[in-house]
Every structure is written in structure tokens, then in C-alpha cells.
Amino acid sequence: MGVKLLSGFRLSRKLNRSFTVSFLLFLLLAVFGCFMALPLIFAVNNAFKPLDELFIFPPRMFVNNPTTDNFYDLLALMGNSWVPLSRYIANTLFITVVGTMGHILLASAAAYPLAKYRFPGSKMLFNIVVLSLMFSVAVTSIPNYMVMSWLGWINTHASIIVPSLAFSLGLFLMKQFMEQIPDALLEAAKIDGADEYRIYWTIVMPNVKPAWLTLMILQFPILWGSDGGNFIYSEDLKTLHYALGQIIQGGIARAGVGAAVALMLMIVPITLFIISQSSVIQTMATSGMKE
Fold first, then answer.
1. Is it the case that residue 3 has pLDDT exceeding 50?
2. Hey, CA dihedral for 42, 45, 48, 51, is it positive or negative?
């Protein structure tokens, strides 16, 4: 209730803003939005440029003679690979979907008791989570490899999926969002006879939908762009990013194919973000609010 009142108060303040100020703010945001969209526009146009336009200096933003030859060349090169393109796509989808969904479930399940219960060591555990946000992925790469090696998971998809489950930002975000759920709502469910699992699935998770949609957008591009690194060596276990990356290693002659590859790798995460952008905005706008 407090969140709704605070949101209504902020909305009323926005409505009291003068038309001139609102127009200037809109104009400023439009300029910055167009500026941020330039790399995407450039990548889309590059994918449809013939080779002669790709090497023009200075580079042109828009294509003059659009062509789909780059995509046909990409399909021809992938067709000559001894591992089918469908296998690379299946590996990528498996790693991305399982890793993303697994992280959402694990982060939300761990955040629920940290947000709604006080038990010995809960504050220390959350402090460890916050402290882990300071470390980059490169710092933990060697420990991750050692753990995966000890478990015998090197050269398996588990070596990519399991480390992705321990995304501390997801746990932090879920806890902060779950703290906004009124305790009275959970107490009422307990009085009606609901157990903890039912409360978690039917009350908590639907109320934090913007948060786990945001996690999906944050985690999906990371796993989608994974090439297996030093964890996967078998060709039939490699991802689409690795296969497309190998194609563009052919030099200048494959510059057009490289532009098509860049567009293909970008379009899926961007589409996912466009579909879920309203939930992301809602999460960022309310993650700091308290009852």
C-alpha cells in the first residue's frame, strides 16, 4: 500500500510539471535515445551492405544498395560444416534456457528467506552476497575451472550452466524486491493454511515478476553470447557464438558474413529486451522503495 501511495505521489508531481519543461525533457531524452541507437542502426545497415560499401572510407551509416548475399554466404558456409547448424543452435538454447531459468529459481528461493525471515547468520550471508558484487568474472575464472575439473564437468554443458547459477546480482535484486511485499499478506496466507512452498509459488513469485524478468534479461545475453571458453572442447558441444566466430576468421573476404553474424547475435537479446522492457523499468523504479 505504501508503494502505491508513494508511486501516486511521484506521479502527481510529474503531472504538475509545466508543458515547456516536459517538452524540453522529452527533447533531451529523444536526442540521447537517438544517439544510443546509432550503433544498432549501423550494425543493421552493415549486414545488408555489399563488400564495396563495407570498405568505403569514411564509413557510411546507411546502405545504398541493400543485398542479402551476406546471409546467403553465411548459410552456405554453415552448410559445409561437419557439425550441423541446428546442433549449435540447440546447444546454445539449452545452455541459455536452463542457465537462465535455473538462476531465477535459485536466486528467488535463496532471497525469500533472507528477505522475510531473520535467522542466525542471515545478515552475514547477505553481506557476503553484497561483497561478491565487487569481484568481476575474470577474478573467479580460475577457481571456477578448478571446481568444474574436480567435479568432472569439463567438456560438458554443466561447466557453463552451473557457474551461471551463482549470479550474486540476481540474489541481491530479488531480495530487495521481495522486501517490499507486505508481511501481512504472507501472514494472511498462513492463516488460510498455505505452507511456505505455496506462498512462494502463488504469492511471492507473481508479485516479484518484474524482478525475475529483469534477471532474465541480464542473464540471457551472457549465456547467449558464451562460446564455451576453456570449458568445452568437443565440436558437437560448442555454441552458436563459437561457430559463427570461427566463420568470420577468414579475413577480409568474409567481412560481409561477419556483419551478418553480428546482426544475428544481437537480434535475439534485443528482441527479448523489447518484449520485457516495461518490467525492467518498473524494477529499476521501485527497487529502492520501502513500505
1. no
2. negative
